[in-house]
Design goal:
Length: 300
């Protein structure tokens, strides 16, 4: 009988010790799930948010490469993720379905987006400071030979050119269709593919022009000339962090942590971070960690 009592006491003591060992988990401020789109910049920014929120005391899960714009946005609305990095032009035209404008202004688009999000119960937690805009790009050698620096300059050549685009840009109203309307141009052939193959296609000569991204280091690596949008056909795409109103209200410490990144990253810096991923083949999380340490936002 004494043996059974002793054994029971040992079991109880073990459970107490086990419970104590789990107290660090109980002391966290909660779980935050972060989404990302399907390209390097989004991976890096998702991990940057993850690291800074982890440092603020949250349990963090980063869902790298969750999906495109609508996959991430729907996941946010459903509570499957709590935050991700979006772009004002995309939110304005694709998510909020607002009309294209004759000319675009960054502050106007930001204000219109923030106002539109009110009806969606979405809050812009912060602006990151950089813009990753769509653009058209051609080989530098060809542009130099033909004196092409703007999309207007491209017009007379377009009917003889094959253009490669990502599927989203090819279809969205503020993308290629709007360029065609504003500049009154038509290309010989259109090829849709993911960004990696698109860039390889112009490198290999399979297409003559591409829908480039202004922070993408492959523009320099593949010696491409990004053409000036001289008639302002394309909207600004300033990077923003979005959350639900409910998350913002219930997690003020998380919002405060995220806002440490406010205007912290300019376009050149983002391009350099993308270079580390594309060329130096660094891991997105390592790139994010190094940047935050360098900026003094976290310690090593």
């Amino acid at each position: 009988m004494k043996t059974k009592i002793l054994f029971a006491l040992i079991i109880c003591f073990s459970l107490v010790i086990s419970g104590c060992s789990q107290t660090p988990q109980e002391d966290t401020k909660g779980e935050v799930v972060i989404g990302s789109k399907l390209f390097q910049e989004s991976y890096i920014m998702a991990h940057m948010l993850g690291i800074i929120l982890d440092d603020a005391g949250y349990d963090v899960e980063v869902r790298e490469g969750l999906g495109g714009t609508f996959v991430n946005y729907e996941a946010l609305k459903k509570g499957e993720i709590n935050t991700y990095v979006e772009y004002t032009g995309t939110a304005y035209s694709q998510i909020l379905k607002k009309p294209s404008l004759d000319t675009w202004d960054s502050q106007t688009i930001y204000n219109e987006t923030a106002t539109g999000f009110v009806q969606e119960n979405i809050t812009i937690a912060t602006s990151l400071g950089f813009e990753n805009a769509y653009a058209l790009a051609v080989k530098e050698s060809w542009a130099e030979e033909n004196g092409v620096t703007t999309i207007s300059d491209l017009g007379p050549h377009a009917s003889e050119m094959v253009i490669g685009t990502d599927p989203e840009f090819a279809k969205r109203e503020d993308g290629l269709p709007h360029i065609k309307d504003v500049y009154d141009i038509e290309f010989k052939e259109y090829k849709q593919t993911v960004s990696n193959i698109m860039y390889e296609s112009i490198k290999n000569g399979d297409v003559d022009a591409v829908s480039a991204y202004t922070t993408d280091t492959r523009n320099e690596i593949f010696d491409l000339r990004v053409l000036e949008d001289d008639q302002n056909a394309l909207p600004p795409y300033d990077a923003i962090v979005i959350v639900t109103d409910e998350f913002a209200a219930n997690n003020p410490d998380a919002i405060e942590a995220i806002q440490q990144l406010n205007d912290r990253i300019d376009t050149d810096t983002m391009r350099q971070l993308n270079y580390k991923f594309d060329v130096e083949k660094m891991d997105a999380e390592v790139i994010a960690q190094d940047f935050l340490v360098q900026e003094g936002l976290i310690t090593e």
